[in-house]
Every structure is written in structure tokens, then in C-alpha cells.
Amino acid sequence: MPRMIFINLPVSDLAVSTRFYEAIGCEKNERFSDERAASMVWSDTITFQLLTRAYFSTFATRPVATAHDAVGMLIALSRDSREEVDAITETAGAAGGKADSRAPQDMGFLYIRSFEDPDSHVFKPAWMDMSAATGADQTDPV
């Protein structure tokens, strides 16, 4: 079995959040979804588990944070091109999230934008030219 990541997120409106995650490219796994949770598959190894706040609290031993008030993590999503970074950011904004919650970052070899889901969880879609980042495309001047 491959190593997998399940990102559990508390959400205030499961239906709204489900539609948002479908809009940015996730597929709902009905087998692991019900009125308290939506299992949103991003890739073969990454799934966003959207849980109602009440249900999420049954898994936590401390109070459940509100992402509107503080940032507890940033979720980076790799994309294959700058255009894909732009597309998912614009889609997120149009689907009920907030596009560009921070100014875009363009370092030439690395391009990052940001968006927030309806509950203000922060995402950082990014494209990186790996050969430029590692110097693999540079010729030896000697």
C-alpha cells in the first residue's frame, strides 16, 4: 500500500465545501462520505476529509480552531504549469473561496499563488521549474 495523506478539515457547511472541493478538481468518494463527512480525493495518495465541526471535534482532544481567526497550516498543491496555478486560483475564487489571499510570488523558477476555501483554510498552488531550481540546465562555464 502506498503512503497516503488524509487531511482532515473542519467545515461549517459540508455541502458548500463539497461543491468547492469538486470545483478545484477533487472527486467525492461516496463510500467514505455521509451527512457528517465528505471524502474528497485529490490524487491517488492525497484525500481531503471534510468533516462537520461537530464531527471533527469527536477526533480532537482540544478545542477546534477556526481558520477565519488564525492560520494553523498552509497546504501547498503542486501544479504542472503557471497556467494551472492561475486556473485553480481563479476557480477557487469563483467557487466560493477567496483568490489571492496573499500577493502572487514569482521567482522565475518558482510561481506561487494562494487561495482560501469557504472556511478560510489556506492553499498555495505552486509550479516549479525543477531543472532551473537545481541548476541542471546551467552549462559549465569552464
Structural notes for this entry:
This protein is of the alpha+beta class. The chain folds into 2 domains: 1-63, 2,3-Dihydroxybiphenyl 1,2-Dioxygenase, domain 1, CATH 3.10.180.10; 65-135, 2,3-Dihydroxybiphenyl 1,2-Dioxygenase, domain 1 (Roll), CATH 3.10.180. It has 4 helices and 10 strands; from the N terminus they run βαβββαβαβββββα. It has helices spanning 14-23, 53-57, 82-94, 130-134; strands at 5-11, 27-29, 37-41, 46-52, 74-78, 98-99, 105-106, 110-112, 115-116, 122-128. The strands form 2 sheets. Strands 5, 6, 7, 8, 9 and 10 form a 6-stranded mixed beta sheet that branches. Strand 7 (105-106) and strand 8 form a beta hairpin. Mean pLDDT is 93; it is low at 138-142.
Low-confidence stretches: 138-142
- CATH level 1 name of the largest domain: Alpha Beta
Tell me the CATH architecture of the largest domain: Roll
Strand fraction equals: 25-35%
Write the layout of secondary structure elements.
Layout: E1 5-11, H1 14-23, E2 27-29, E3 37-41, E4 46-52, H2 53-57, E5 74-78, H3 82-94, E6 98-99, E7 105-106, E8 110-112, E9 115-116, E10 122-128, H4 130-134
Parallel strand pairs: 1-4, 5-10
Antiparallel strand pairs: 2-3, 3-4, 6-9, 7-8, 8-10, 9-10
Offer a concise description of the structure.
This protein is α+β, with helices and mostly antiparallel strands and 142 residues long. It contains 4 helices and 10 strands. The radius of gyration is 17 Å and the shape is globular.
